[in-house]
Design goal:
The chain is mainly beta. The protein has a single domain, classed as Jelly Rolls, CATH 2.60.120.10. Helices cover about 0% and strands about 55% of the residues. It contains one helix and 22 strands. Strands 1-20-17-22-15-13-14 form a seven-stranded mixed beta sheet, with no helix packed on it. It has a seven-stranded antiparallel beta sheet with strand order 2-3-4-11-6-9-12, with no helix packed on it. The longest helix is centred in the middle third of the chain and has 4 residues. It holds the Pfam family Pirin_C_2. It comes from Geothrix oryzae.
């Protein structure tokens, strides 16, 4: 069964410096029907204006994955980490027993567009940590590329949860297929462009819960002639 959620039904706030959409309940947005899906707790689609950002704040007991779609995002945290995240780079933080961090758009004139994803950890009280991996463009193009996993397979960032995260950037009309092992579920987020998921039409910002399906076929739309980008979650 595939349950679609259109982009326009998400929580939405525009603070001027930040335009944000929430796929699941977050902050001031509460939706009892969309609290989480398996271990997937948050998918926020954020656009931060130039020279703006999130001040230092704290988290604990959460796996936090960031995927930049365009622009750059500067990161600092209480572990002493300082880095810049660009498109094609996955960043993960295990908040664990507690971590403080900030994110800032260092550009003087361009916004940054990114997804921030929270995954419930396999256990509480983990030691806080940070990791960041860059994936070559060719490895993301027209295939499902593993970017996060519980064992760091294929050069992916490590998650302390039985979740695999894949990204695909699809040229118009191109297709990818993925399998969902028995007893597991899938979740698909369209980051940009238009696609069909097992024949169901989806557009940027739409998401889908996938249960009881042994496989998925994703085909990028051809109408606009522009590429699509998806994130696919394989969930215990």
């Amino acid at each position: 069964m595939i349950t679609l959620r259109p982009a326009g039904t998400r929580g939405h706030f525009d603070f001027g410096w930040l335009d944000t959409h929430h796929t699941f309940s977050f902050g001031e947005y509460f939706d009892a029907d969309h609290m989480q899906f398996h271990a997937l707790r948050v998918i926020n689609e954020d656009r931060v204006q130039a020279a703006k950002g999130f001040g230092t704040h704290g988290h604990r007991d959460m796996e936090i994955l960031t995927w930049v779609l365009s622009g750059t995002l500067e990161h600092r945290d209480s572990l002493g980490t300082h880095g810049v995240i660009r498109p094609g780079e996955a960043q993960v933080m295990s908040a664990g027993t507690g971590i403080r961090h900030s994110e800032f758009n260092p550009s003087a004139d361009e916004p940054v567009h990114f997804l921030q994803i929270w995954i419930l950890p396999e256990r509480q009280g983990l030691v806080p940590r940070y990791d960041q991996v860059a994936f070559p463009e060719a490895g993301l193009q027209n295939q499902l590329r593993l970017i996060a996993s519980p064992d760091g397979a294929e050069g992916s960032v490590k998650l302390f949860q039985d979740v695999k995260v894949f990204v695909a950037r699809l040229d118009a009309g191109r297709a990818v297929q993925g399998s969902i092992p028995s007893g597991r579920a899938g979740f698909l987020q369209v980051a940009r462009g238009s696609i069909s998921l097992n024949g169901a039409a989806m557009n940027a910002g739409d998401s889908a819960r996938i249960e009881g399906e042994p496989s998925i076929t994703v085909v990028a739309g051809v109408e606009a002639g522009s590429p699509a980008e998806i994130l696919f979650f394989d969930l215990a």
